[in-house]
Structure formats: structure tokens, C-alpha cells
Amino acid sequence: MSSLKSINIPLIFYESMVWLLCRICLFFFRIKIQGREKVIEWKKKNKISFVAIARHRSLWDAGLMPVAFGGSEYTMMHYVVKSTLKPYFRQIPFFNKFFTFINREKIKLSSIERLTNFLIQGINLAIFPEGTTIPDYKEAKRGVIVIIKKAEQKLRIQIPIFPLNIKIIKGFYGKPKGRWQDYLLRRVNIELKIGEPIFLKELEKLVGQDLLRKDKEEEMVKLLLKKADQI
């Protein structure tokens, strides 16, 4: 009989939360998932961390990301969340293990270092580079590129980025419109498609070589999101 010390409580908590999210999302959506197995195979074979990214069109994205990747020990992720949501997560057990809260307008160096260290330790990250669902303020931030670069410099290995395309096949996806009954009873068809791993070296070759570092990183993250759209 295993001792209590050998029980991975955070993993059990994560698995339970993903299971619950699956039940909630399946109530609202018809979901088809593609590509999860390639992430698990990569993690098993290479035993290094990865970064998952997706566009941010709805608050549902935050729930659909873990649903797409699953709740296994290989796909358990640490999530980058905007600081305004911190009060809502404060009461969740182990929240510090699964969330890093950042001000997208002025990211602290300590947050960058914290996330970089997670990758170095083999902990996977989930990031929405746009950082918001509000169209007027939507702008892909280069933080994901900076974090991966720093981790790669220390590890001296390439870290894969797995893009997720939350593809709406049929129905309305977003804030409720009309009667709440219609919103609850809608059946939206969604495909959660995880693409092949992308590496920074590939992105660097595709953007202008004469750009300044900051501009180059911004173009890289834009290209990364375009690749997610093409899955």
C-alpha cells in the first residue's frame, strides 16, 4: 500500500478539474478533439516541457484548452492568466501551482523568470498570446517568445510549441445573445485541433532578418497564431 507521500495530490486535483471541465463543456458544445496523442507521444519520448498556445476569442477558451490536451500527467499545464482574474481564483486549492497572473500591459521580470523556470523544470505552459477576448484591445504579445528563448538558452534544447485551433464548425460561440434558455440549450459544434510542434528556429527563418529583436519577436508570435489558424 502506497504511502500518502507518494500520492501526487496536485495531479489528482488537476485530473479532477479537467474531468469536470469536460462535463461542463460537453453540456454546451459538441466537441471533437484531434491531435492530443501526438502531444502525449512527444512528452513520453523527449521528456521535456512544451508550450500550448491558441487564439483568444471567448472566455470558453480557458476551459477548452485543458479539455483539448487532457488531464494526464504528460499534458498537465501551468496557465498564464491576466491579473484581473486573480480574485476569482484565490479560493481554489493549489491555484499557485497552476496559474501565474500577469499584467499584460506591463509584465514583471519576476513573472517572466517564474515561467521560464517552469519550462526548465519540465512543467508545460498554456498561454493565450493575445491575452484578451476584447477585439479593440487585442494584440499578440511577444512574451511567449521571450520565455521560450530564455528557457532554451539555459536548457540548450529546442522547446516545442503545440498550437491549438478552437474551430467553430456550427453555431454561435461567445457571449450569450437573446434568452438565457436558448443559450443553455444551443448545440455548438467545435473541433479542438492540435497541430504539429513548432519551434522558434522555424519562425525565425520565416520573419524578416533585418528587424530589431523586439519587432522580430512580435512578428514571430503573429506568425505562430496564423499557423494555429491553418490547422
- Work out the count of structural domains: 1
Strand content: 15-25%
Low-confidence stretches: none
Strand order of the largest sheet: 1-7-6-2-5-3-4
Number of strands: 7
Please identify the structural class as seen in this structure. Answer: alpha/beta
Mean pLDDT: 86
Briefly note the CATH topology name.
Glycerol-3-phosphate (1)-acyltransferase
Question: How would you briefly describe this protein structure?
Answer:
The protein has about 230 residues and is α/β, with parallel strands linked by helices. The protein has 10 helices and 7 strands.
Describe what you observe in this structure.
This protein has 231 residues and is an alpha/beta fold. The protein has one domain: Glycerol-3-phosphate (1)-acyltransferase (3-Layer(aba) Sandwich), CATH 3.40.1130.10. The protein is 45% helix and 18% strand. It is built from 10 helices and 7 strands. It has helices spanning 9-28, 36-46, 61-69, 86-89, 95-98, 109-120, 143-155, 180-185, 200-206, 213-229; strands at residues 29-34, 51-54, 77-82, 99-102, 124-127, 161-170, 188-194. The chain has a 7-stranded mixed beta sheet, sandwiched between helices. α1 (9-28) crosses α3 (61-69), α6 packs across α7 (143-155) and α9 (200-206) packs across α10. The chain is globular. The model has no long low-confidence stretch (mean pLDDT 86).
